[in-house]
Every structure is written in structure tokens, then in C-alpha cells.
Amino acid sequence: MQICPSILEYKAEDYLKTIKKLSPYYKYFQIDFADGIYVDNRTAGLDDFINFIDLPAGRQALQSLKTLTFDFHFMVKDYENEIKKLEKLRNYLKIKNVFIHYDLFPNYQLLITNYSFPIGLVLNPQDQVGDLASKYDLNKIPCLQIMSIVPGAQGKPFISETLNKVEQLRNLGYRYEIFLDGAVNDKTLPIINSQKFKPDFICPGSFLSKTDRLKEHFDYLLQFT
To answer: What is the CATH number assigned to the segment(s) 2-217?
Structure first.
């Protein structure tokens, strides 16, 4: 398993501060945005993030982030408008994937036609792999993310049953990257690692971004990679 830290903040400048703090250890990050409508939590918005980058302080902070790679995870209802805004970030950041939620039932063919970013789908705990496979061609989805908590604020309880979805996807022939996001920490990683079918990427959030023992937590995660 590889590590892709998940960054969720309530002020635009804190996204860059947290990424800079973690960048000596990691080069690939997932930036989370929540609208307070689709989920019960509201972060700083993508507009706030872009506006901060346009400020002198934001541009200065970005200089040290040029070598990093980012995914964007939109826990938002109006995902199409947010994806359009990402075009403004192309000159600043290297963007690998964009994740939107399956239960919004996007017109996936239209999405992959209209946008140049690879669009991945996110399965919430209640979403079933069989339903996903019946609605979409799995071979056309470049990456999938499994939520192991109810999406929204960090700190929600881990739902171990969601780990079964990795095996279900592999048994259906899905061969692209699978991410796991939600309550990835020292309590849950032994459970995740005990599975026969493991995700390709795990996305620790507060376990890395909110700790004052970052080097210790980094070293702990190494044993699972």
C-alpha cells in the first residue's frame, strides 16, 4: 500500500501550511473540499484556495510545492462547477486525479468527454459495488475511492465492512488503483493490512495533519508500505 495524505482544512491558507509541513515526508496528496450541503461539514472552498494562491503569500508558499502531485476529492453537490475551476490551477499544481461521489449518479461519459482530468468515483459506506458495476463500465473508471467512514468531518468512526469492497471490485475484474479514505490510523491499519485484498493507496488524514508526533507517525506508516 502507498500513502496519499488527505488534507481537509477550514481556512485556505491552512491547506498550504499542512502540505508544506508534510512535504518532507510525502510527495502525493489528496485535497478534500466539502460544501456543507452534500455532507455535514464545510471546509474552505476551492474559490478561497484559488484566491489565496493569487496573493503574494500564496504564490510564495507554492514555490516549494512545484514538485508535488495532487488529487482533489470533492464532497460537494455541484461537482461539475468545481472541476471547471480546477483548470485555473493547472499553472500552479500538478493534478493527477479528481474524485466525485458515485451516489450523485454523474453522467460519467459526459464527464470524461468534457474534462481533461481523470475522474474517479467515490463509494460511500452504504454504496454497493454491485450497483456501481450495473450502472457504469468499471473498465472506464481510472480510479476508485472507498470511504471507510461516513464522509464529512474528520474523526468519524471506522466502518470495517467497507474493506470488503476491495475484494469485490477485484473479483469483478477491476484492475485500476483503489484508494481507501477515512479513519486511517494506528488503530485501523492492522485491520486494513490483515485483508487478503488491500487498497493500492491509503489516505491518512488527521493521523498525519493534526499530530505533534509527525516523524513517529510517518515511521509507523512505513511498515505498511
So the answer is: 3.20.20.70
C-alpha radius of gyration, the chain, whole number:
17
CB 75 within 8 A of CB 152: yes
Could you report how far apart the first and last alpha carbons of the chain are, in Å?
A: 5
Cβ contact 125:164 at 8 Å:
no
Residue-level length of the chain: 225
Q: What is the pLDDT of residues 72-86, one digit of tens each?
A: 999 999 999 999 999
| Alpha-carbon span 215 to 207, nearest angstrom | 11
Q: Is the pTM of this model over 0.90?
A: yes
Q: Is 73 helix (H, G, I), strand (E, B) or coil?
A: strand
Contacts of 61 (CB under 8 A, 6+ apart): 13, 16, 17, 20
Question: Angle at Cα 175 formed by Cα 172 and Cα 180, nearest 5°?
Answer: 90
**85: its cell numbers:** 475551476
Annotated domain spans of the chain: 2-217
